[in-house]
Design goal:
Shape: globular
CATH topology: L-fuculose-1-phosphate Aldolase
Strand content: 5-15%
CATH architecture: 3-Layer(aba) Sandwich
CATH superfamily: Class II aldolase/adducin N-terminal domain
Largest sheet: 7 strands, antiparallel
Radius of gyration: 18 Å
Order of helices and strands: HEEEEHEHHHHEEHH
Distance between the termini: 40 Å
Number of strands: 7
Length: 237
Amino acid sequence: MYDELKQKVCDANLELQRLGLVAFTWGNVSGIDRSEGIVAIKPSGISYEELTPEKIVLLDLQGNVIEGDLHPSSDTPTHLELYRNFESIGGVCHTHSLYATMWAQAEREIPCFGTTHADHFYGPVPITDRMTAEEIKKDYELNTGKVIVRRFEKIDPLQMPAVLVANHGPFTWGRDPADSVANALILEQVAQTALGTIQINPEQGAIMQALLDKHYLRKHGKNAYYGQKPRNKFGGD
């Protein structure tokens, strides 16, 4: 019944490796069927070379395994917490990609210095608060999700489909599993270019608000005009 969802999640996980965003088994992608409330996710510790759609684990939003003989990713509670709170997302991705993880370990948000960043993320990529010792000791992965959700109390997750978890690494999300992986790749590029920017000019300030608005909203705003639009039946725009 969920073969298509499992295939999409498997393909998205394999894409992580193809894009060089993961080493060994340091990453996972999930997807959700919102109509049924079913989440598909990579099994824990399985290498990408071994991964097939049949090994993808299905769960409900409470974490009960619906289908699969393998243990789901250890990060599953984080993914489920994001799905429960960000109702518009259809895929979640977690990596330890090099440059984004540097910013997470440094506990620094990624400033928006230019239009490459502004085309995809509406402002600086946020960093979460540090987790408390109690949050780490008990229900660590669930609390990772909770600390992300708290950070997004006043942020639209559709305008900012990425976060850095302090001392840990990045999570991204999107309309489906493939979109969450695309955002992970964009985040890694943005993280690298931001680091290079401050190495060249440590005093560089953030992009002008007008330029941020122009580049983000022309692609994602109500009156977006970037890209192709279907012509009407009379051949006009």
